[in-house]
Amino acid sequence: MSAAFTASAPSPAGTSPVLQAQPLGPLWPTLDPFLFCAHHDDAYPAGDGAFAPAVPLEGRQIGSDFSRKDGWSMYHGDTVPGFPGHPHRGFETVTLVRKGLIDHADSLGAAARFGGGDVQWVTAGRGIQHSEMFPLLDASAPNPLELFQIWLNLPARSKMVEPHFTMLWNERIPRLVHHDADGRATTVTVVAGALPGAGAPLPPPPESWASQPEGDVAIWTLHLAPGARWTLPAAGGQGTRRMLYWFAGQGLQLGGAALPGHAAYEMVAAHDWELVNTGSTAVECLLLQGRPIGEPVAQYGPFVMNTQQEIMQAMMDYRRTQFGGWPWPESDPVHGPEPRRFARYPGQTVEELPTPAPAA
């Protein structure tokens, strides 16, 4: 779809709601303080009883399969799809699972199986290894998986903090359900940031930019029923930037202007804007917002620091320490055949959640 933007109605004080529009490719464009946003939507087939696809894998570059052949990829998995053990330093990963289940394991000794609206938030800080595997538990039916993975930068003062592992369970995540004058519903799921009417936000990890009042970070998903109208309130922070990713649905107006198609739209954050679903199917969007950290970014793969010298140090530290080592017998641990949702935190504290997860 075209990413051109043309206004069809006046906006507050004559302001256009959209500053720029960019297409949604394999990796979605981001604004500081965000580094990376990926939308994985994989139509995995039935499993083979050992968590792998019950279909031939010929024609895939096993170990680095991003082909989306038949609607899904193996990624870096060689038996089970996913991302076996790999390191990070200097930023955070926020993983929102919309469908399916993910198995997490890390160098802190933490483990989890989560999905169906759950969110995992990991502060890599000075260094962590983790794996993210997508076990195909159902051997008699397809195993669809859909998730967002977002990388949120850390300011220089926090890049070498201790790693931190947090689970935000679907049942506890605040939501705003708004019915317009015609009774049509808009649901906003509030992973981070305050939204009037949604209840108190869950606390992000303590060293996160999202925990700093000046950060003004918000991570929301929006679901507008056909015909629904909802006013997105202005951001609270001066200098905050806001990106709206429209990725599902047929028609969307923003501030009285028809958006031309699915794209990443940087918005004017200082105004309220009315969103209207003009199509016959639900509209879905992801919103990422934050005040820029405004520091130099040096990145080499899974390491994000402020200078190239710090990147070299990260590589040397990883070779020397393995960021605490890998306490698992495999690089791609899978946590058994039961579709249970749980988290085992460092120190062995365990949370068990109802299975299956309520609808996200």
TrEMBL record:
<dbReference type="Pfam" id="PF02678">
    <property type="entry name" value="Pirin"/>
</dbReference>
<dbReference type="InterPro" id="IPR003829">
    <property type="entry name" value="Pirin_N_dom"/>
</dbReference>
<protein>
    <submittedName>
        <fullName>Pirin family protein</fullName>
    </submittedName>
</protein>
<dbReference type="InterPro" id="IPR011051">
    <property type="entry name" value="RmlC_Cupin_sf"/>
</dbReference>
<feature type="compositionally biased region" description="Basic and acidic residues">
    <location>
        <begin position="332"/>
        <end position="341"/>
    </location>
</feature>
<feature type="region of interest" description="Disordered">
    <location>
        <begin position="331"/>
        <end position="360"/>
    </location>
</feature>
<dbReference type="Pfam" id="PF05726">
    <property type="entry name" value="Pirin_C"/>
</dbReference>
<dbReference type="InterPro" id="IPR012093">
    <property type="entry name" value="Pirin"/>
</dbReference>
<dbReference type="InterPro" id="IPR014710">
    <property type="entry name" value="RmlC-like_jellyroll"/>
</dbReference>
<feature type="domain" description="Pirin C-terminal">
    <location>
        <begin position="220"/>
        <end position="324"/>
    </location>
</feature>
<comment type="similarity">
    <text>Belongs to the pirin family.</text>
</comment>
<feature type="domain" description="Pirin N-terminal">
    <location>
        <begin position="77"/>
        <end position="152"/>
    </location>
</feature>
<dbReference type="InterPro" id="IPR008778">
    <property type="entry name" value="Pirin_C_dom"/>
</dbReference>
